[in-house]
From TrEMBL:
Its EC number is 3.6.1.55. Residues 23-156 form the Nudix hydrolase domain. GO terms for molecular function: 8-oxo-7,8-dihydrodeoxyguanosine triphosphate pyrophosphatase activity. Its cofactor is Mg(2+); Mn(2+). SUPFAM superfamilies: Nudix. Signal peptide: none annotated. This is NUDIX hydrolase. It is an enzyme of class 3 (hydrolase). Pfam families: NUDIX. Keywords: Hydrolase, Magnesium, Manganese, Metal-binding.
Amino acid sequence: MEVSSIVHKLKGRTPTILGQDKYFRSAILIPLVEKDGETHLLFEVRSMKLNRQPGDTCFPGGRIEQSDSSPREAAVRETTEELTIKEEEVDEVIPLDYIVSDSGRIIYPFIGKVAPRQEVKPNDGEVEEVFTVPLNFFLENEPEVHQVRLQVQPADDFPYELIVGGEDYNWQFRETDELFYQYHGKVIWGLTAKILRHFVELLKA
């Protein structure tokens, strides 16, 4: 193939994330709720009936379906389904930075104002309970930071003979920060905590 043909074929294309069609794509919403005259963030505790991460604290959200026109629509849809509220009760939806995680996931976070209610009755098939935390708590308190070491573990049939060093190849490992917020017995950690700190940093900037 000639250089001119290559340039013609690729010129003007918009780059995306390499291999993103194989990633698990999800969208979440940080619900902002007015409560007792101040802004709170609403969290869910995942149902103990779920196979993945039962009992963990998270924001409403889930897989982006083919029927969703955008990550924003997916975030709103998942929020209304999990909190059993109407779409018109979610307003001022604004995107934050998206995350590409080591586990093969792309997460699109949003914030959104959720109309206040006397009581939220979540979908008990997915949500064990909901609770709120005053935004000021996160503005005034830094998370605890603990490190996790990520190391490469080749499969048993890995072709060591094809790489320099063979079985003695010097695989690199790295350490990543895990964040923990604790509020009245509730623990917020993992990607939820990372998204939360990003949101707080944007407010402080």
